[in-house]
């Protein structure tokens, strides 16, 4: 069931029934993803991921094309922290078949808007390996700013890898993307509630 629709995409929460499409995405997109990201590749790994979503450790969105229903990508708001921080880590990956068509930019724009409105977060951070030029350009185009460099920061694919840290706050997002004010009114009027883990 779609949570939100825009011109070309619909956003939905992941579930067990999405497993075939998810496995197909991962299998056909390995060359696009590696060594940047290693999504769940087995039914057991997908079930483990869904348990993390259910426990509130991840706020997750599937991105599907409205015209065909095909899965084009997934966006995660990871490790949501409430209290004085109100922050999360942004993660995302797309389907190689639909790459370079603007779908991930469109989907990320919608999810970041929801993060700052529906989920009432204040800050999002994206940690990206320096060689992942496409993802660096993508977050930069959405208003994220580079905050630093962390050597051997995350263990990806069995290796500790360097990452650049990029972030955006609610205030800078609103200044850069004025239409998010309309998204905020839509989210609040829908009666949806904020999610995420409290610490």
Q: What do these coordinates show?
A:
The chain is 33% helix and 32% strand. The protein is of the alpha+beta class. It has one domain (2-189): Gcn5-related N-acetyltransferase (GNAT) (Aminopeptidase), CATH 3.40.630.30. Strands 1-2-3-4-5-6-8-7 form an eight-stranded mixed sheet, with helices on both faces. It is globular, with a radius of gyration of 16 Å. The model is unreliable at 179-199 (pLDDT under 50).
Which short descriptors sum up this protein?
199 residues, alpha+beta, 7 helices, 8 strands
Map the helices and strands.
Layout: E1 2-5, E2 9-12, H1 19-28, H2 30-33, H3 43-54, E3 58-65, E4 71-81, E5 87-94, H4 103-116, E6 123-128, H5 133-141, E7 145-156, E8 159-169, H6 170-176, H7 180-189
Parallel strand pairs: 5-6
Antiparallel strand pairs: 1-2, 2-3, 3-4, 4-5, 6-8, 7-8
CATH architectural type: 3-Layer(aba) Sandwich
Give me the number of helical elements. 7
Radius of gyration, in angstroms, nearest whole number: 16 Å
Question: How does the major sheet shape up?
Answer: 8 strands, mixed
In the CATH hierarchy, what is the superfamily? Answer: Gcn5-related N-acetyltransferase (GNAT)
| Tally of individual domains | 1
Overall spatial form: globular
Quote the beta fraction. 25-35%
State mean pLDDT (0 to 100 scale): 88
The tally of strands reads 8
CATH topology: Aminopeptidase
Structural class: alpha+beta
Order of the strands making up the biggest sheet: 1-2-3-4-5-6-8-7
Main CATH class: Alpha Beta
Q: How far apart, in Å, are the first and last alpha carbons?
A: 30 Å
Portion in helices:
25-40%
Question: Which stretches are poorly predicted, pLDDT < 50 over at least 5 residues?
Answer: 179-199
Order of secondary-structure elements: EEHHHEEEHEHEEHH
């Amino acid at each position: 069931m779609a949570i939100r629709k825009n011109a070309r995409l619909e956003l939905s929460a992941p579930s067990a029934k999405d497993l075939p499409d998810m496995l197909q995405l991962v299998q056909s997109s390995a060359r696009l993803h590696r060594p940047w990201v290693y999504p769940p590749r087995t039914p057991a790994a997908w079930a483990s991921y869904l348990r993390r979503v259910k426990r509130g450790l991840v706020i997750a969105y599937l991105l599907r094309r409205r015209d065909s229903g095909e899965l084009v990508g997934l966006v995660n708001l990871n490790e949501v922290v409430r209290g004085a921080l109100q922050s999360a880590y942004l993660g995302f990956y797309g389907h190689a078949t639909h790459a370079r068509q603007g779908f991930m930019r469109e989907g990320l724009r919608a999810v970041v808007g929801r993060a700052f409105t529906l989920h009432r977060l204040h800050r999002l951070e994206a940690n990206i390996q320096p060689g992942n030029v496409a993802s660096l350009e993508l977050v930069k185009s959405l208003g994220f700013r580079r905050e630093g460099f962390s050597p051997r920061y995350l263990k990806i694919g069995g290796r500790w890898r360097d990452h650049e840290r990029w972030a955006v706050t609610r205030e800078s997002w609103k200044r850069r993307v004025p239409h998010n004010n309309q998204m905020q009114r839509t989210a609040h009027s829908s009666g949806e509630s904020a999610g995420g883990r409290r610490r």
